[in-house]
Amino acid sequence: MPVYGLIGRTLSHSWSVPIHQALGCREYRLIELEPDELEDFLLKEDIGGLNVTIPYKRDVMSFCAELADSARHVGSVNTIVPTHDGLCGHNTDLYGLQYALRRAGISLSGRKVLILGSGGASLAARAAADCEGAESIVVISRSGPDNYNTLSHHLDTDIVINATPVGMYPHIGDLLVDPGFFPKCSGVVDMIYNPLRTAFLMRAEALGIPCTDGLPMLVAQAASAEDLFTGQKNMCDRIEPILEKLRQKMENIVLIGMPGCGKTTIGKKLAELTGRPLIDIDSEIIKAAGHSIEDIFEREGETEFRRLEQEQTALAGRQIGHIIVTGGGVVKTSENYTSLHQNGRIYHLERNTALLEREGRPLSLSGNLEAMYQERRPLYEHFRDVAIQNNRTPSETADMIWRDFLEHKDTGH
Fold it and tell me: What backbone torsions phi and psi does residue 362 show, to the nearest 5 degrees?
């Protein structure tokens, strides 16, 4: 049986299998190879179609009898198909990046494009900028004339593309360059897709700059590769449906709101409805501290509680495909927004303060809930993507959130 799959050295975090299987290639699998295994594997006669990732995109070129124009243009190979004369190397990353740019409404034509990084991903970014008619292309590396200490020489940059792994899981939150550093910046691309929104993209969002993550590129390049595997030209019609399902599968549903507004109850209903794992951040704080929230407040005060809350929120926000229930004051720590937003759609549960539960909630028992709500309302509004009035049964509210989540269509960031 012909072999289809992705070859690379470390592939545990790859999403290629579900994407290619959704495109119809049920035999597709992950194939981890050490450098000394590469040659013997590529000499096999049962190759049906392969994708190639780090660190072999250049290494495989010497085993290809032929290189397609895309591979020559990029300078690396990410797709291999057999021909009568041997293996033919292609590069569908170029198409994938062009697709992501068009989808986000980012034009490189006549623009100054600044590419962060000089590694393998940078090659595809350079090729795309060239194909799309960029006026100038600057590649920033750690050393050389254009480096991170000379960014001030490029304040006229129009488009910034991150082709480095900075900000990628598990190093979530790292920011290599602030898009706001470039006054003319009109487009931001991050080739990373885990997390869905890197710190780089969230900064672009805050500035109102059109931007895109790397997931559209990932799905589009896979569809183009499947066209090469099958010899057909119809896979690209499936990009958007697969992208939508994949993003929904990855994205968390996050509940915020006042203490006692029903987050825990509705979170449990959502977990039952969706089959998704539930993370209750207050419960995680109790596990980490070894005693109750009331005891934490009594023994160590609110400052220590907020530190523990920030720590557990950061851990929860790294997950994908979960229901995340937060404490009422999670919005008081600005860093928690990044943790929750990077992989999540945030729902603010609103409920009349007179109906809020107080039992077991130290700040609710000791203060004026209406005054607390007025203080926190701007913070909830900043954090939330959607406001939900919790004036129905828990099951009805959970169903309403799930319907909104499924109906939400991502069109970029």
Answer: -55, -45
Query: How far is it, in rounded angstroms, from Cα 265 to Cα 92?
Result: 46
Share of the chain above pLDDT 90, in %: 81
pTM: 0.89
Q: Residue 413 pLDDT > 60, yes or no?
A: no
For CA atoms 192, 386, 346, 344, the dihedral sign is negative
Does residue 364 share a domain with residue 267? yes
Q: Are residues 391 and 258 in the same domain?
A: yes
* 85 and 163 co-located in one domain: no
Q: Which residues fall within 8 angstroms of residue 98, CB to CB, at 6 or more apart? A: 128, 131, 132
* Together in a domain, 327 and 288: yes
> Does 99 reside within a domain?
no
Element (H, E) at 227: helix 215-230
Question: Measured between alpha carbons, how far is residue 241 from residues 221, 235, 246, 281, 410 in Å?
Answer: 15, 11, 9, 32, 11
Q: What residues contact 407, with CB distance under 8 A and at least 6 apart? A: none
Which residues are CB-neighbours of 334 under 8 A, at least 6 positions away? none
Pair (361, 384) in one structural domain:
yes
What is the per-residue pLDDT across 367-406, written as a single tens digit (0 to 9) for each? 677 788 888 999 999 999 999 998 899 999 999 999 999 9
Name the residues annotated as catalytic.
57
> Who's near 113: CB < 8 A, 6+ residues apart?
125, 129, 134, 136, 137, 138, 157, 158, 159, 160, 161
CB atoms near residue 75 (< 10 Å)? 17
| Residue 30 backbone dihedrals phi, psi, to 5 degrees | -90, 135
SS3 67: strand
Domain that holds residue 64: 3-94+218-247
d(CA 275, CA 156): 49
Residue 391 belongs to a domain: yes
Element (H, E) at 212: strand 211-212
Of 209, 238, 268, the one marking the end of a domain is 209
Residues 283 and 352 grouped into a single domain: yes
Q: CB–CB of 369/258 below 8 Å?
A: yes
359 three-state secondary structure = coil
> Chain centroid to CA 318: how far?
10
Q: What is the Cα–Cα distance from 188 to 212, expressed in whole angstroms?
A: 7
Question: Domain total for the chain?
Answer: 3
